[in-house]
Amino acid sequence: MAVSEAAQGRGAGRLLLDAAIERARTLDADTLFLWTSSRLEAALALYRKQGFQQVEPPEPSVYERGEVYMELALQAEIKDNLDEEP
Q: Among 4, 15, 25, 38, whose CB has the most other CB atoms within 10 angstroms?
């Protein structure tokens, strides 16, 4: 995912990420994962704010600039919300 420089800082990345997360949920995905670069500080902050956690990757990255692997557990989040309902 990328946002042009002209659109950066205007919430476009957040909208794209929210759409990807929602789509993954509608497809009943258990986990959403991504590779990113440690140099992309704003992106890392956005991913962490959305609940992604940096974890050990299951395999080496195939991306030259992607050395940070992050996951968001989707089904655990849904289960936690269901457990809280009266």
A: 25
